[in-house]
Amino acid sequence: MKVYKGYLISLKANISTMLLYCSIFLLVAFSMVYLTSEGTNTGSYSQQRLSIGVVDRDRSFWSETLLEYLEQYHDVTIMDDDMDVLAEAVYNTDILYAVILPEDFLNTCIVGEKPVETLTESGSQWEYYVNGRIDSFINTVRVCLAGGYSPEEAAQMVLDTTKVQAQVQMESSREDLSVYNVFRFMPYLYFSILCFVLGLIQKEYQDIDIRRRLLASSLTLKSQNLQSLLAFFTTGALAWVLCEGIGILTCASEFWDSPNKWLILLNGFTIMLGALAAAYFVGSMAKSNAAVNGMANVLSLGFCFLGGIFVPLELLTGVVRKIGQFFPTYWYAQNISILSFNDTLTESLRSDLYQGMMIQILFAGACVAVALAIGKARRQEEA
């Protein structure tokens, strides 16, 4: 077991790197859990009221109806007709949005097609929020007037729509997202630790002098490869216990309350195998420490960006999503979403879950096979 012991001795020399990454991740994980608990979802929803200013140049029945309509959703302040004052109020955040109702509001904006003039910060998200309310008011009034209702009846019908509220029901009974927020980023920790640490150790074993000494020993090539893989698996198991332990430590109560906790750990074990295989590939291909660092950075960051770790899968575009399916991180991210947001797993969800785990394992096997094949070809060239 000389090769196996050699790997463990080299690992002991690099243990500080593993602890450094774990310490950084632990701090980040605690921060994410804290931020999640600050914004804990109570299960009840209310519309956000904004502070908006309105300049009413019309002062007609319909402009006053719109003011009454907006007051149902926002805090409305009547402003003077002075653009400088409005701009300063928006700049100082005294109001978040300004609405300017023109003269002859009915014929200009309701019957006509001219949009209501507004003023807000450039690129503000509130523009779409408030404009949506105003457009809804105008469109409803148009429909009512076209249907033969009197102005008073149309105004009352529009105001009655403000009393309609949607009933929202959560699909998941759990309100805290700590498990998802912490365990979703676990692949980056695995790929960073294992590719950097084991990649450097494996690279040293690819040195021609060390390989010639091993070939001159009584160890067969098969035994050397088996001991290398065993050393990798031992290191991976240690990393799995350490990383998953950090995840459990940061969100202990919710993790142990989760009915899918053991599947979460199993999903972490499969992505650990993928990271181990990537580390074996990096160490077998790289010819210098700088090459190991470069390949490890590309793999860890690339897999996590394209695989839905740093960017949620729902936000990935069609082409990027298809490319991400070639990476094990994509299937890990899909699995952790299933396990975090579903208390009960249907047959379809279980099928997707096990399929994702199997693809991660197949990726690990493919990486090891390619690394062994290239290593064999390289040895034949040197012979």
From TrEMBL:
Membrane topology of the entry: Multi-pass membrane protein
The keyword Transmembrane helix appears for this protein: yes
Alphabetically ordered keywords of this record: Cell membrane, Membrane, Transmembrane, Transmembrane helix
Alphabetical list of InterPro entries matching this protein: ABC-2_transporter_component, ABC2_TM
Gene Ontology cellular-component terms listed: plasma membrane
Domain of life (superkingdom): Bacteria
Segments forming domain ABC-2 type transporter transmembrane: 20-372
Pfam families (UniProt xref): ABC2_membrane_3
Main location: membrane
Record localization: Cell membrane
Transmembrane segments: 12-35, 185-205, 226-250, 262-282, 294-313, 353-374
GO molecular function: ABC-type transporter activity
Matches recorded under PANTHER family: MEMBRANE COMPONENT OF ABC TRANSPORTER YHHJ-RELATED (PTHR30294), MULTIDRUG ABC TRANSPORTER PERMEASE YBHS-RELATED (PTHR30294:SF29)
Annotated protein name in UniProt: ABC transporter permease
Organism of this sequence: Candidatus Fusicatenibacter merdavium
